[in-house]
Amino acid sequence: MCIEVIHMKKTKNIERKGHIIAVTNQKGGTGKTTVTINVGVGLSKMGYKVLVLDNDEQTNLTTGLIVDNQLYKEKNLGNLLDDVLDEKKIRLNRYIIRLRYVDIIAGCRNLFTYKEEFRNRENRNTIYRDVLEQARYKYDFIMIDCPPVAGIENAQAYTAADSILVVSEPSMYSMDGIVDAVRIVGEARITENPKLRVLGVVVNKMHFMRREDKGYVQEIRSMCNGKVHVFDSIIPESAAIARCASLEKSILQHRSTSKASYAFLDLAQEIVKEVSLDA
């Protein structure tokens, strides 16, 4: 099957801020990290400059992109948060690692220890918004890979974001995660970020030959019912995607002509269109 991939050109406008997307679902295992990596690389291949931030203490985004852990030993989100706590002047470039397709602020395993450190600070939820402001004029897209929890890490990400991308899978529990994510967005609008919106829901890990999976996709579309956008692009379940993590590559690098690669490129194009409509 021949699939045409349309490469969209970026409109250069130095006055326009980059768009921050929090990639989320309150349920674990839906493939948020996989989507963040591959959409990020897809956007890069379309000509956009992309920064990804690993906001999950599992650091799968970091290990899925970087081979040498020495690169981020002293250059990660933990170092950034330490400097914020010490009230040092933050120059974001110091914490960014530049890779072939995307740049990254690497994660740290002890991210949970910062919850208590920030709990009593007035700016606890606006940390990411403040530090990422420097990057908005340097990157077209900034993607935050969020953990599957409703804690301070997600509150910080949602406060910084312009929109959230909900990653679902064709299962009942993942559908519950969509409801939770939309609810939390509503709360974030009231408290910290009135302009936050749901960019859309993407279905991941789809078995196209399974009747049950098709049924769940229909239920997701019915549940969202025009109130929340559901992307047309659906990401297939793929053994090649699972292997990519150990190769520190995206599926677009590992199997560039696979159905999964085309699906991620299509999704990246849909995201660009949705963001453009909102501009």
Could you characterize what this model shows?
There is one protein chain. The chain has 279 residues and is an alpha/beta fold. The chain is 41% helix and 16% strand. It contains eleven helices and eight strands. The chain has an eight-stranded mixed β-sheet with strand order 3-4-2-5-1-6-7-8, with helices on both faces. α1 (32-45) packs across α11. The longest helix is centred in the middle third of the chain and has 20 residues, at 172-191.
Secondary-structure blueprint:
Blueprint: E1 19-24, H1 32-45, E2 50-54, H2 60-63, H3 77-85, E3 97-98, E4 103-105, H4 114-119, H5 127-132, E5 141-145, H6 152-160, E6 163-168, H7 172-191, E7 197-206, H8 211-224, E8 230-236, H9 239-247, H10 251-254, H11 259-278
Parallel strand pairs: 1-5, 1-6, 2-4, 2-5, 6-7, 7-8
Antiparallel strand pairs: 3-4
Cα Rg: 18 Å
Please state the structural category.
alpha/beta
- How does the major sheet shape up? 8 strands, mixed
What is the mean predicted local confidence, pLDDT?
88
The poorly predicted ranges are 1-14
Shape annotation: globular
**Looking across the biggest beta sheet, what order are the strands in?**
3-4-2-5-1-6-7-8
Helix residue percentage: 40-55%
Q: What is the strand content?
A: 15-25%
Number of helices: 11
Q: Count every beta strand, where a strand is a DSSP E run of 2 or more residues.
A: 8
Distance between the termini: 35 Å
List SSEs in N-to-C order. Answer: EHEHHEEHHEHEHEHEHHH
